[in-house]
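Final report, Chapter 2: Outcomes

The project's central promise was a pipeline that accepts a single protein chain and returns its three-dimensional structure in a standardized token representation, suitable for archiving and comparison. That pipeline is now operational. To close this chapter, we reproduce one record exactly as it appears in the project archive, with the input sequence first and the structure output second.
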Amino acid sequence: MIHSISKDRSLRQQTALSKGVACLVAAMIGQGGPSTATAATAQPPIRGLVGVQNVDQWTVQLFTAPNTQTRSTALTTEELTKAYKNAPSVNEWFEQSLLPLSKSSDQMQDYKDLADFLFELRETMRREPLKNDGKDRKQTLFLLQTLLEETLAAIPRKFGADALPEFFYKNKSIGTDGCYDSTGASRVTTSLLGLSICQGDVVAMKGTAGTSSLLARMSELPGAFSHSTIATVEQAGGKVQFIEALIEDGLKLRDPWEEIEQRLKKRIAVYRYVNQHSKAATRARRTRVIDATDLFLARMKETQQAEGGAVDLTNRASFPYNFAFDVTNRVKYFCSQVAFEIYNLAMGNSPLNIGAPLRNLSNRTQAYPKTFWSTMGGAESNFFSQYLGMNSTSYPAPSDIEMHPDFQVVGYFMHSPSLVEDRIDNALVDVVSHLIVKGDADWKKILGAISKHGQREFSKADFEQIVAAIRSSQDISPEVKAKLEKLWAQLPQSSTLNQIAFFAIYNEVLTPQVRKLVLANEEAKFSKDGRPFSPGELRGLIASQISQGRELPQQFLTIIGEITKVINDCKGALGSPRTD
């Protein structure tokens, strides 16, 4: 049960709450952070690449090793695939076959050619037979993604931010056979990124917030994406929309124009089902997926009709967000759960129907078969359960779609300049994870302070009353007001106070301060050594600033104290702890 702030709350309580939140937001804006680094500590490992040595050398060679190898003398994807099959480990394959490809050049096209080759190799490896139940494949894909992104991130550093605005791969060979529903109506369009979009295509993305990297990398073997959705295409006119579950406001039917067409994502990929052995099976299953997508939309409508009021799939949530990441919960949804359920329904053995039960989760014909699911364990699992309400240790993550060889890429976009910032965010996740597992004393204090807020519910409507009070205040600067408006817009319809505290600290304080710190020090690094920090050096630098005894953790504790002050000032107004 959610307990809202009482509308007849006293003016004193409103004022205290407004001042407390204003103080919190002002503190977030005002954090300057250290401008230079102190001595580095031990380098935390690159998450997902434990056991793969000398990854740093790839980045170093991109800036220092002379390029004496041309594309014609380099190994082909077929030769590298064969070498992978014969290599006793991913590490040995990397050191013997991949590392020699990394070279410095004064020609941007050499870096572009290397990036194109790595992407082609990565797509080839996606279709290779599995080893070790897929663990080798997931680590291999993650390794190639890391090398690809390090290569693209080198371009703006060597040739300027505008040298290569984007990396965009379009699959010219993938077909649209079967992109029609059971009535024979076409459900395909070319109105998104110039790609052919078929209803049922899975769209995976990574956003710009610091927590996007956290969500993409939180599993034991990280992925490239923090979010996914499934495309719908209208019969008449071919309008594309997404069935999309967002933390902010649950499951809705959304227009993809702004975020996709305006390139407001760091990474976007579109995947389509292609049976590698049968064109007839491809056509039949695509049609079933299209029909299953329509049935899911019908279920969204039926849910709203049962609740009463006007049906509006675009402006009204049909289901709330599923923070637990539990796929058996079908009255709440997280992002990739939507595609999981639609493909589960479409590829089951029973006739399609809205009430169809979930079938064998290990079935390889699913978009996200259980064999490929992401997993979490140990201290990290406890962390996500306690602070974010995520109780599942195994779940179909957005990146897991890449593990399935029957899903071919339709198009793949990356915003190249943002990769400079993205590699910082990725390193930050690895360091925070390392400190949590290691039991860093200051991070124990930080997480302990956040956890004191417990599971007290706080609705978006509650926060709106705070925002309204601050909007009318003459004592709060426009900058603070704007910050608060942004925070309010990103809040879920209902969340717990420890979730709000964690996301506020991570996105509004920790991430920007670490980005500022690294970029300032990287300029000096580049001037001295002619190159940026390698992935390992980057993690060592960040660890030196946010581990025990450093300034930033103390700042976090101060800000959490401000959050606690807000809660204590308005005790009783924020509602009681959850009892359901």
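Archive annotation: The CA atoms of residues 71 and 113 lie 8 Å apart.
This record, like all others produced under the grant, will remain available to the consortium after the project formally closes.
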